[in-house]
Structure formats: structure tokens, C-alpha cells
Amino acid sequence: MKPIARSIRTRQLGGYVCHSCTRNLRRSRRGYATTSQPSTLEIYDVVCVGGGPAGLSLLAALRANPITSPLKVALIESQSLDPTRKFSLPSTQYSNRCSSLTPKSVGFLQDIGAWEHVKRERVCGYKGMRVWDGVSGASIDFSPEIGGAATEGGVVAYMNENLNLTRALLGRLDELGGVEVLEGEKVTGIGFGNDTSTADLSSWPVVKTSGGRELAARLLVGADGGNSPVRTFAGIDSRGWDYGRVGVVATLQMEGEGWGCEEGKIAYQRFLPTGPVACLPLPGKFCTLVWSTTPDLAAKLKALSAEDFVSMVNAAFRLSVTDLKYLHDLPSGQEEEVSWRENHTPFEREHVPMKVVGVQEGSIASFPLKLRHADSYIGQRVALVGDAAHTVHPLAGQGLNQGQGDVESLANTIAYSVEHGMDIGVRMNLERYESERYAQNNMLMGVVDKLHKLYATENQLVVGVRSLGLRAVNSLDSVKGFFMRQASGRGEKFL
Questions:
Q1: What pTM was estimated for this model as a whole?
Q2: CATH code for the part of the protein at 4-87+165-240+373-448
Q3: How confident is the model over 192-216, as pLDDT tens digits?
């Protein structure tokens, strides 16, 4: 089969776009439109804007599949990718931006040949989770024996640094070859092509870069984050709200390798009225912290000394909500105060994470939490993936996995079109991708949002009802198994 990009020399490819539709699209896209010069136009089958995990995974998937490998593809990334390619830290240091990869996401990365490029010694699979209510103490415990959710070896999920993943994806792309990479070039405008002597490109998106290049795309993919220029060009609205919360992250050193050691580490999450706090295992004696709280409390945490910060993290998993409120109001001295209170607070050691004994210098950071969902994932010759399509609260650790699910579905949709001789950019042929992903993502985002709101209160009636429900679920292995299969990405579809 001839590569789609080459066929423009012999026939017209504007196909399946009526002139009225094109006019409407142009009106909606005026905010991000430019004109293009045919003499400098470069023509591609797929142009992807954004060199994060979603964009790199998509291009790797297209190049790894014999059906789609002949496509002419390009990547536009505003930042230099060299720091990512050279990412390397000693075994005693870890990046503070980590993600929990489900077995399904790992399976996809294995299928496209990227997982073997991941530095596995920096990845930690964990085999259980403990989640509990910080007000009532009601808890739910997940283990690999429940519901058949885990992979072989009992792993529920894998903690991995985002930079470790993107470095691996770049390595796989370098291995595959055939991708035109425009790094360090910003998108300065997106418009439409013009009629040429060989083809009508008037319905094709044309991306203009700061390097003076113009790329016409049969399919333009937006993997360019929450403020996506591609989404703006397509005239697709993104709706949602800010939570008024901040995620504080840090790399922590523990007193030991975790309960169960390397063979069976556990992830912990406690729901506090200000937001959930999670301790997620990394290799050896390290873990990553994700603490969702108010902007004021986040600022206080970041201003503490390393010793007081460590003490506050330990307190977050061990002390009462009343104690935490008092400790937050102290300008300093949390270390001594927490130590005294811990000695007078009963708790079972293995029901909480091992004690934190240190925080990696420079690893404490924060970011705002929000929910956003695009009205559609597709337009005429446009598709959105990852954060360009949706942003979710991190309490379920599903943001990156949602993006990988998008990429897998879109890559399969493109392959289906190529295999059946269809135009990969026509909206009608992209509907398969949207129908697979939109409802599924929307349902998951709704569940996560409701969980956040349910636990962000100290109302005694609400606390009583949610605690009763949590205890009921904890007593039913079949229900816990369902939730674990959903969290691991191997469950039944919601709809």
C-alpha cells in the first residue's frame, strides 16, 4: 500500500468536507489563524503538537505498527528534548513528578516497544493499597488477591518518574526512525492550506512554527496540554472548574523499604477535609508524596524547614484532623510537637506508611488542581489526546493513564482507516476514537470529582454515611475487586 502522504501528487485530497462546513470552521478558528505560502508548505499525514507522554506514545505507536509506519509524521515541541534524552539521576535521587502506571498502560507501552527502554531499576510495582477516612478512620484495603485485578506477580500498579517514561519513548522513536522532530520551535499560528497544482489543501490545518516552517497535516493531533493551541484552532471549548486546591509533591526517604519490602510494597492514601494525602512507593527506601490541600496550607508547608516538613508528613498519616489544624498554625517547631503527639496517639504501625526520615533537597513543589473536559475530542482533521482533552484531580492517579488510553484508541483508529483505504483526517472516520474514549473518560472524571467533594467536608451526617459505605465496600471482596480492576485499567467498561 502506498503511503498516504505520497498520493497527494496524483489526486485531490480535500475529501468529505463541504464548503459550508469549511467556512464555519474558519469562522470558529479565527483566533488562531494564519495564512500560508504554498511554496514553503511541507505536507504530512500526521502532525502532532506536544512532546509529552501522550504525543510521544502516539508517534511510537504509529511507527511501530506496519500498517501505519509508512505514514509521514512530524512532532512539534516548543522545548528542547535534550534534557529528557539525557535524564539520569543517581539511585538515591528521584524526580518529584511521578505517575502511577496501570498494568493496561504498561501493556500498551510493551506493545509499541517502549517499555524495554524504561530504566526498570527506577520503577516500583506495588501490590496493595490502603485508603482511609481521616475524620472517622473508616478504611478500605486492596490486595492483589482480590478480584483478579493484578498482573502476573500481583502488581496493582507501577510508580514511575514521568521523565523516565518520556526518555524511554524518545529512545524508542530514535530506534524506529522516520519522525520529523521540530524541537525548540513554538507554534505561532494555525490556519488552512491553499489550492496547489497537485491538491486542494484548503481544508487541511497548516501549522506555522517559530522556526519559519509550515506543516500541512492530513490529521493534526493536539497533545499540547491544558492550554492547547490545537484545541483553540479547532474551536472546541473546554469546560470545568478550579478546585481551589494545590497539589504539593516531594521525594521522601523512609526509615525502611516499606511494609513487605521490595516484594510487596503498599500505597497509602488518607482523605483529609482539605484534600487527600498519598504516599506512593518508589524503589528502595524512597517514596513520592502527593498532598492535595488549600493554597494557604501548601504555602505554609513549603516554607517549613526540612525537619518540620518531614514531621508534618508523618503527622498527616497519624494524627487527628484537630491536631493537624493546630500544627498548621505553628510558625515553626512542628518536629518536637509532632513527636510528643505521636507518643500519645494510638495507631497500628502497619496501617500507616513507614516513618519519613528525610526529604530530597529541592524536590518540594506545588501545582494547582483543576478539572477540565473538552466538548469533543475531534474536529475536521483534528484530534485531541491527554491533557489537551481532559484534566482530572490526581486523587485516583489516572491522568497519565487516561492519556495512554486515548493514544492507544486513536492509533488503532488511524490504523483501521489506513487498512481500509479511508482518509485518516475526516471527522466521520475519527468518530470511532471519540466514541471509545469520551464517555469512558467522562465517567471516570465524574467519579473522581464526586469523591473529592464527598471527602472535602467534616459534616457529621456526611461523614457517617460515607464511612458506612466505605466499611460496607471493604467487607465485600467482589465490589473491591471491581474497583481494583477499574483502577488497574483491566476492568469492565463503565458503559
A1: 0.87
A2: 3.50.50.60
A3: 987 654 567 888 999 999 999 999 9
